[in-house]
User: Fold Alpha/beta hydrolase from Rhizobium grahamii.
Amino acid sequence: MRNIARLAVAAGLYMASSITGHADTPKPTIVLVHGAFADSSSWNLVVTRLKKDGYPVVAVANPLRGVKSDGAYVANVIRGVKTPVVLVGHSYGGSVISDAASDAQNVKALVFVAAFAPEKGESAVDLSGKFPGSTLAPTLAPPVVLPGGEKDLYIDQSKFPGQFAADVPAATARLMAVAQRPITDAALAEPAPAAAWEAIPSWFIYGDADKNIPPKTLQWMAERAKSRKTVAVEGASHVVMISHPGEVTKLIEEAASAN
Assistant:
């Protein structure tokens, strides 16, 4: 009976370690931050894979109002997480995570998914124009003028699939076009308040057919940040996490397991 009891305890410990990685060392929480013209559902295929592999996940509803205010919002989310964090940003969300992690004590890694990694003082507009290749501006719909004069920007729904999600099934891309969330023009022009990638290890992945941010810009930012690993996905659009969720998940998990 005593041997049976020992075996039962051992089996229980093995099962617990299989779920959490180790009872004393829980897996880091993956915090996902979407970018402009998207929402948290853009991470769904990545979330499914991360959850299957045992990672706690939070997909933040990025306000898309301004880098500093959005960064403060994400920083508040991070403060509520009790484990180490891998902070992941897509597109404009890269600017947000670069600010949000600047004062965070529990962020162990940054992952930039077709994302801006601005230096302090740089804006998304600055970086978009650093190298030729972005075709975003001509695809924007007439802006929505807000009280105070700021403008909400959308991509024209008819142009959205080709501009934003060319390698996503057409029916899915059309739904994304309808559900897209706007960003203010001021947010895209706002100078970055901080650059957390200067102190926190970073990983980069992007598509080499990105039409929003020139691939050459994405590669240049990765090199400047001394990226631990950079993946350029052949033929992938700006929403590489939707068209190639396996590759994106794999890189996030590499960042999560790195020392």
